[in-house]
Amino acid sequence: MNYKVYDAMTISPVTVSKEETVQHAAQKMKQNHVASLVVRDGDKFIALVTEKDITRKLAANGLSANDTKVSQIMSSSVRTTSSTADIIKTLSIMSKINQRQMPVVDNGKLVGLLTLKDVLRVQPQLFGLVYENINLKEEDRKPIYKSGHSEGVCESCGLYSQRLVEVDGEMVCAECKEML
Fold it and tell me: Where are the alpha helices (DSSP H) in the chain?
């Protein structure tokens, strides 16, 4: 099935004004359990502010969250997509440019936000496309442990699992293994 961005996008993303403080933005992120906020002016998308912006541009520079405006740390060079764009092509672009969230804009108006979680919720089999473009930072300094289990998408139910096991030549999750 060919999914479009509108099939998976969050229709009412959490937003913030560029004039609000970073403290207020961080509280909104916490209350709504999100890693980014859409910065908008009316219906127009201006930028994104992410947890990464807060840690790298605010905390790392010793700035005060109460005294710093969202406009001072927001990411304004963010790529956008349209609601009718092909979801696989959009995911591929997101992965290549290392952008975890993509504002959805139609006719200059913000209509939603697409996140990796949104895409994987609709098409979990796309996990491989996301995973293959993730670069492990400082790979030589990270221990690799072999657990005897693999992670990926269950070949029976199609859901992502961190503990796949092989049963009759198929990689399946624990729930599907019990049903076989």
Answer: 22-32, 51-53, 70-73, 87-96, 116-122, 127-132, 174-179
Q: Strand 170-172: give its sheet, edge to edge.
A: 150-153, 160-167, 170-172
Let me know whether 72 and 104 are in one domain: yes
Residue 129's pLDDT is: 55
Residue-level pLDDT at 64:
93
d(CA 79, CA 159): 29
Q: Assess if residue 32 is contained within a domain.
A: yes
Q: Tokens at residue 109, please?
A: 């108006």
Distance CA 33, CA 120 (A): 18
- For residue 130, being part of any structural domain is answered with no
Contact, 133 vs 141, CB < 8 A? Answer: no
